[in-house]
């Protein structure tokens, strides 16, 4: 399965960042942008939703 990974706009300065994706199944994924060959962590729809809500509620992170 081929997916599109999105890198944070904050990574422009240092290049050290994580990338996120949404799988067609509704799950979410996150990986190290500097070492994508090492794999990724996947989360169920409920886990991903909780993760995104927690970050969004802090107001410091905007996820695509």
Structure, explained:
With 64 residues, the protein is of the alpha+beta class. It has one domain (6-58). It is built from two helices and four strands. The protein has a four-stranded antiparallel β-sheet. A hairpin with a 5-residue loop joins strand 2 and strand 3. The longest helix has 14 residues, at 45-58. The radius of gyration is 12 Å and the shape is flat. The chain starts with 5 loop residues before the first strand and ends in a 6-residue tail after the last helix. The mean pLDDT is 81.
What descriptive keywords fit this protein?
alpha+beta; 4 strands; flat
How would you summarize what this structure contains?
This protein has helices at residues 11-14, 45-58, and strands at residues 6-7, 18-22, 28-32, 41-43.
Residue share in helix: 25-40%
Shape: flat
Low-pLDDT runs of 5+ residues are: none
The Cα radius of gyration reads 12 Å
How is the main sheet built?
4 strands, antiparallel
Termini gap: 20 Å
Q: Which series of helices and strands comes N to C?
A: EHEEEH
Total strands: 4
Strand order of the largest sheet: 1-2-3-4
Portion in strands:
15-25%
Residue-averaged pLDDT: 81
The tally of helices reads 2
Number of domains: 1
Class by SSE composition: alpha+beta
Topology of helices and strands:
Blueprint: E1 6-7, H1 11-14, E2 18-22, E3 28-32, E4 41-43, H2 45-58
Antiparallel strand pairs: 1-2, 2-3, 3-4
């Amino acid at each position: 399965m081929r997916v599109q990974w999105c890198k944070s706009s904050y990574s422009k300065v240092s290049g050290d960042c994580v990338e996120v994706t949404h799988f067609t199944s509704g799950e979410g994924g996150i990986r190290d942008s500097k070492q994508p060959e090492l794999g990724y962590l996947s989360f169920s729809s409920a886990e991903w939703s909780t993760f995104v809500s927690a970050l969004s509620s802090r107001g410091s992170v905007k996820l695509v």
